[in-house]
Amino acid sequence: KQWNQRRVRGNAWSSRNYYRFFRLYLDAPKMSGYLMDTFVQRERNNAMQCLVKAYKPAISVAKVTATLGYPDTETAMVYLDELNVVFTNPSKTAIDCKKTTIET
User: Fold this and answer.
1) So what's the pLDDT on residue 40?
2) Phi first, then psi: what are they for 80, rounded to 5°?
3) Would you say 95 and 86 are in contact if contact means Cβ atoms under 8 Å apart?
4) What would the pLDDT profile of 18-40 be if each residue is shown by its tens digit?
5) pLDDT tens digits, one per residue of 38-77
6) Sign of CA dihedral 15, 12, 20, 80
7) Is the separation of the CB atoms in 97 and 57 below 8 Å?
8) What's the CA angle centered on 75, arms 18 and 58, to 5 degrees?
């Protein structure tokens, strides 16, 4: 238990390593994932803000789904629609990072 807690707080969270943070969230032992649920949404918003800045001109929805630790694309699409992201095409396979702004 403490080993996972140290990895989350010491390595992934404090260094803003969102990829590692969400991998640890998905693989959290026992009830640890429920404890992390309290701040996962905030970290997703911060991570999404970083992704939009870093991946100009566009980033694929599949990459966002994997990076933010969503179990599937449909769940990630609900989150992206709530953020009002701008997509590059009508099929919504990529996010236009130049036109998208993320408010945290």
Assistant:
1) 78
2) -65, -35
3) yes
4) 777 777 777 666 766 666 666 77
5) 677 888 898 899 899 999 899 999 999 999 989 899 999 9
6) negative
7) yes
8) 60
Global confidence as pTM: 0.76
State the first-to-last Cα distance of the chain, in angstroms, to the nearest integer.
31
User: CB–CB of 20/28 below 8 Å?
Assistant: no
| Burial of 15 per CB tally in 10 Å (0-12, 13-18, 19+) | exposed
Query: 41-59: string of b/e by CB count within 10 Å (b at 16+)?
Result: eebbbbbbbebbeebeebb
CA distances (Å), origin 27, targets 18, 39, 88: 14, 16, 32
- Which residue's structure tokens are 């001109």? 57
d(C-alpha 20, C-alpha 68), whole Å: 10
